[in-house]
DNA sequence: CACTAACCGGGGGAATCTCTCCGGTTAGTG
DNA sequence: CACTAACCGGAGAGATTCCCCCGGTTAGTG
């Protein structure tokens, strides 16, 4: 993986152009179909052969990194910013609303944030930042009496992934339905009328394992002969 | 798809035996891997050729029906029973706990109840009964002041599917973690400290479409969505 | 115990997807 | 404008999975 010196051999103009076309095509297709979309589809959409795709990117993870690197960095910055809200609950709400908006708008971003995709450096950074943000805001909200004290950042991450994963389904018919479910989730996090939670929260490692599983869902086929 | 069952031609003994072996094998494999497991795997586990499987069952849906018919009928009865609880909230809680227990224990049942698999008659009956149960219990709980008035049965079904879909992931590392998340969800449904919900609830049709999407991870056929 | 309709498993075609090989083409330079 | 290293796309190998065809086998009957 050590191709740290790409600068000394600049790509020829046609190669560079194809690389851009591939990234643009991947961005569109990922947005519609998610990051599991066939790589051949992406190559075709870019108007190049599949060999060219594999020549420019070692595999799916590297293409994802190229496509989402920038937008993930944007989210990262938003997370950092959210942490500075004086009213922690308001900050948490705004942050989650922003995240859900992204999950609803782009299937690829959704896959990235709700499953345990491995091998994308920017994604690891985002996950760490996301955890930190939720942890900080939740703790502060708890101190401020706005959030129930027995809920953890891992709980929030799990629920975010679980709900987020379902969002694209509802988005087809009702683009803004996610607001309703996020509001319901948030109300469950408030201290008023809360009942003690059973079972311990997931550990960070357990959460990672759970999210890895979330991605491994293959589609059930039921009607084959149509 | 008129599969008029001809009871007048009873299966030969070897054929009947193979049929039972196939159902038993499918039950085990579905439980581990979900209902999208390769049919060839099931045939191999049953010790027969794949042709035998296709000879006994028209396709995946018919095998699912044969495997889960009985257990689905059990759930159906439990639903009917839950509706008669005097304390609607207690009934609702008990019902959801029962459902989540099943979703956590069996991946096949999970697929059946959290996605929009088509072509399985028992499943359609179960979905109808499930909706009715949630609707009745929720309304009664609202009248009794135990549930917030602005939540609908469709909301509950959506959240049930969304959370249920994520349960198997957490089950690997922490078998009882789902209790925690169900408790959190339930607290969000209580009237104390609830805030008005934005956006309208999904309609029944929209919910159906959303659940259909939950199962589909990959793109449809060549070209358009079906 | 012989007969035959029903049954059986393996093998293979078709579709899909990942990744590589190879002969032809082109960008950039002297 | 000629040269060549870099680049290109199509074709295809290999894997996976659904589904059916075909020649051999067996359960049940007279």
From TrEMBL, chains A, B:
Database matches in Pfam families: TetR_C_43, TetR_N
Keywords, sorted A to Z: DNA-binding, Transcription, Transcription regulation
Annotated SUPFAM superfamilies: Homeodomain-like, Tetracyclin repressor-like, C-terminal domain
DNA-binding region: 38-57
Keyword set includes DNA-binding: yes
Gene3D superfamilies: Tetracycline Repressor, domain 2 (1.10.357.10)
Organism domain of life: Bacteria
Domain HTH tetR-type: 16-75
PANTHER family: HTH-TYPE TRANSCRIPTIONAL REGULATOR BETI, HTH-TYPE TRANSCRIPTIONAL REGULATOR RUTR
UniProt name for this protein: AcrR family transcriptional regulator
